[in-house]
# Entry
Amino acid sequence: MGFWRSVVATWFLLVVLWLLSSVVVADPVPPCEFPAIYNFGDSNSDTGGISAAFVPISAPYGEAFFHKPAGRDSDGRLIIDFIAERFKLPYLSAYLNSIGTNYRHGANFATGGSTIRRQNETIFEYGISPFALDMQIVQFDQFKARTTDLYNQVKSTPDAEKLPRVEEFSKALYTFDIGQNDLSVGFRKMSFDQLRAAMPDIVNQLASAVQHLYEQGGRAFWIHNTGPIGCLPVNLFYVSNPAPGYLDEHGCVKAQNEMAIEFNSKLKERIVRLKAELPKAAITYVDVYSAKYGLISNAKNLGFADPLKVCCGYHVNFDHIWCGNKGKVNDSVVYGASCKDPSVFISWDGVHYSQAANQWVADHTQNGSLTDPPIPVTQACRRM
# Structure
């Protein structure tokens, strides 16, 4: 009996091994091949638009990566730059930058200070861009029409290599990072109840922009929610002895973050409906808020400095010299210089994030762990 048991066991093992060898291991889903990226947003993703339209951003902005000012409100790269890197695409040229631009693989319509809703004030008052989201969409329409016409004229010449292909607009990735300035304007002009009442209209206008791009052939959309605006160090520049409960346990303005969370909730609800309205679209909601707040709340353990400390600029008591500017403090000229090691700072200039923080947030959102549906950016063309 022992002999036959051994034979049966051997036969059974051989059958199992044969079955295992016959199983075809499915290849992982290949990444999306986006030929281009078209971005819409504010200073969190502006790669040179506001610099081209108005006064150029000066040194020491850009010093950590580009080693010179590069139209970005940071010491280096932004999240949109890391998205481009993920697809091995060039960094996006700003639509408004007329010199040395290459639009073969996309364009960036974001400008610093942009809002979703138009604001009735000029950039010289509070820094609000005249290029609200609806204007960025108009610019995209013009860009698409004019580059298509121009490509048909020069397609047999080297100039064609700087222009997009008309058939690739439908294959591109459309990214959004906008809404923070709508909240900051609201904090300045409205009561919280008024801002709360305005939120449905704000998110509907963003949805209208997505619908328009869908009608133009766009199919893949990667939409950031807004970050913890109450954690921007600028919020404390002019505040002394805040009342109990004004700040949360990490030093952020509690009420402002609560409004950002409410805005994000309404945005996510609208995106859910948008998915039903645009059945051929792949729309991904990206929870940038959780990534940024996670970084800020755990800064020390992650090797970062105090998240409320600013790398670039002079901010002592109530004397404020902004990054890259000069001013007088007690009759002495003071320069708003950069810190020695920007890579350990989360805040670059009190309003914008450092390259190191942008990279951390990019790494923790592009992997799909904070997105709905939970897919990495490399799969953003997939409908889930």
In short: The longest helix spans residues 192-215.
